[in-house]
Every structure is written in structure tokens, then in C-alpha cells.
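Appendix B. Raw example, untouched.
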Amino acid sequence: MNLTDTRRKLALRITDPIVAVLSRSGITPNALTFINLALNIVAAVVIARGHFLLGGALVLIAGLFDLLDGALARLTGQASRFGAVLDSVVDRLSEAAILSGLLIWYVSHHGAVLEVLLILVVLTGSFLVSYIRARAEGLGWQCQVGLFTRAERVIVLALGLLIGQVFVALWVLVVFVSITVTQRLIHLWKQARTDGS
């Protein structure tokens, strides 16, 4: 079993019982997607004001909604290409919102230059991780490899906020997001050599 399969099975264990209830409630997958976005925006505002514990809790709750929208769409037969694109866009907006909240907090505190730099590196790297996969799949390649997908990034950042170790969490993200970008590029380079592209 590879890392992608392990992530998928773990996510299903979390979402299956909840989705079974939601499927009878009449709520739509897109509604869950927008709830996820709204929670992340609220979390960003809370974080920007320095309330990291509450912000971390909100990030985790929003992360649950991020898992539920796709699972509900598949269970109820509402999965669509537009829904997949919308979910992906909201994921990027949500991640940018949380990191922007942190950026605002650190910019407002003099001497936090390193933290600001780390946040910018994490934001760039996170977008690259997603972009590489999207670009590769647009060219017909598979690219689901990598240690730190969005789920891992959300968990690390939320834990950093919850335990008051944001600086450590940012360093972890910088290292592992960089590794993931490298992993995906190497994976695609190997595919290119195999098929002669």
C-alpha cells in the first residue's frame, strides 16, 4: 500500500459515518465547500488578531469540511468536474487566507522578518505542490506522489497554532513542502524519460 492509498483509507474512516448522516440532510457538497471557505476566513481573522489556539481549532474544523464535500459528492452521485475545480480553488484560497492571517500578525510585530519570510516560502511551495500536479495531469501524467499534500500541511499548521509553536511548524512546512515539490518534479522527470516526452 502506498502513501496515497493510506491517506485515502484514513480519510474514509473519518468521513464515512458523518457523510452517511449528511446524505440524508439535504445539504449539498458545494454548500460544505463554502462552509469550509467561510471557516478558514474566520480562522484567518482570528489568527491575524493573535488568537492562535482558537485559530488552530477553526483550521482543524474547516479541514474536516474539506474532507466531507468530496466524500458527500461521491456518495450522493453529485460529483462533477466543476465541483472538483471549485473545491481546488477553495483549497488554495483557504490556505492563502490562513497564511495571510499569520503574515498580518507577524508583520504587525517588529523583528519578525524571519517568520514573514518563512510564511512566503510556505505559501509559494504549497501553491507549487498543487500546480505541479494540476499541470502534470493536464498533460496526461499521474502525479499524486509526495510527503506533504494539503492534508498534512493543514494538520502541521493547526498543531503549531494549537500548541503555540507556529515558528517550528513553519520550519517543518518549509522543509517538507520543498521536499514534496522536489519529489513531484523527479517523479515527472522519470515519467518523461519512460515515455520519451
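End of appendix B.
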